Amino acid sequence: MEREYTCIICPNGCQIKVEYEGISIRSIKGDECPKGKDYVKNEITNPLRVFTGSVLVENGDFSLVGVKTPLPIPKKYLKKVGEITRRIKVEAPVTIGQVVAFNLLDEKIDLVATREIEKKII
């Protein structure tokens, strides 16, 4: 199989063509730096992404808080983490970097808050 990737690792944005079968890579062409070759290899063998989403906040000045994984996770887990995230509720106040969920899917996947939410004053 042949596929073209646009590398997102550095500002060059190389158009990299790769020929592969399953996860066995036959050739890589078009990378201007070693980072591009590593990027394409990873995309074929174990693609990773940072998950971003939001969770409900109770008694806060906002009803949602943005969350993300602190590290990239295997792409195959994104949908499952999204489904779990829809069921999570946190109590205000929330601080930036606060871990709002631990060890999702028993895969050491955590979610951290990306903004501050103050407790609602009644």
Give a written overview of the molecule.
This protein is α+β, with helices and mostly antiparallel strands and 122 residues long. The protein has 2 helices and 10 strands; from the N terminus they run βββαββββαβββ. The chain has helices at residues 34-45, 78-85; strands spanning 2-6, 15-21, 24-29, 48-49, 52-58, 64-68, 73-74, 89-91, 99-104, 109-113.
What's the helix-strand series?
Answer: EEEHEEEEHEEE
Low-confidence stretches: none
Overall shape: it is elongated
How far do the termini sit from each other?
A: 61 Å
**Structure annotation, total helices:** 2
Largest sheet, if any? 5 strands, mixed
Pairing-aware structural class of the strands and helices? Answer: alpha+beta
Task: Indicate the mean pLDDT.
Answer: 95
Strand content: 35-45%
Radius of gyration: 19 Å
Helices and strands in order:
Elements: E1 2-6, E2 15-21, E3 24-29, H1 34-45, E4 48-49, E5 52-58, E6 64-68, E7 73-74, H2 78-85, E8 89-91, E9 99-104, E10 109-113
Parallel strand pairs: 5-8
Antiparallel strand pairs: 1-2, 2-3, 4-7, 5-6, 6-10, 9-10
